[in-house]
Amino acid sequence: MATCSNGHANSDGQYFCGQCGDLLESGAVICLAGHANPEDRRFCGECGAPLVAPPGVEPVGSTARWSVDPTGRHQCRYWDGAAWTQQVADGGTLGVDRESMTSASRAESWVALAAGLVTVGLLATAGADIAVQLSRDASTPSSAPTSAQPTPTEAPGPPPPAVVAAPCPPGGTGVAADGSATYCERLADTDRYLWSLTPGVIPMPEVGQGTDPAVGVCMVQTGRAETECVEYLQATQ
Length: 237
Description:
four-stranded antiparallel sheet, 237 residues, three-stranded antiparallel sheet, 24% helix, 3 helices, single chain
């Protein structure tokens, strides 16, 4: 029998507590789909996702892990803790994406340049219209006080990072604080939508009585303990 940190008894062979979702084996490795594996495994026995850093790559941060490829060209891509690498994996086979993120970044740069040129053109046209209007106003006497011009509003800033297991708008996508791609997916057997590191319906985690399933999703996908996930999700409310 295996006993979790909260004192619940579980059958041998289980990786998570059936009462509170606590990880029973501290050395277990969780794949990007949430499956637990023995610490000596290199690939997940359930879905084939890689579990360890690719050969020749040294993690540079505590958040280093395999995640869903944000470019969509491969099943998953390795995040070294600071940036996305060229190392990818598809169906249990490791590879190197020669295009990497450079092509996507170059395309984004061209799009940004084109958008900037269009904006400059629009501003120039608007400036000319304003100059003509001011010239007309200066030559025409005014018999009534003019109303105050509305103050232009500031452009909205970038959206805040998505918080794994926090509520989200259905169908939305985002980026977590560490740069991982996130997806707004439905929690199985419920009408709740939560941010997830993997696309598709989120499996209902095994949690203790009275425990919010979102806490279990946080534990499975981020590797945090129950108390850490509670504080992590409360900070977003």
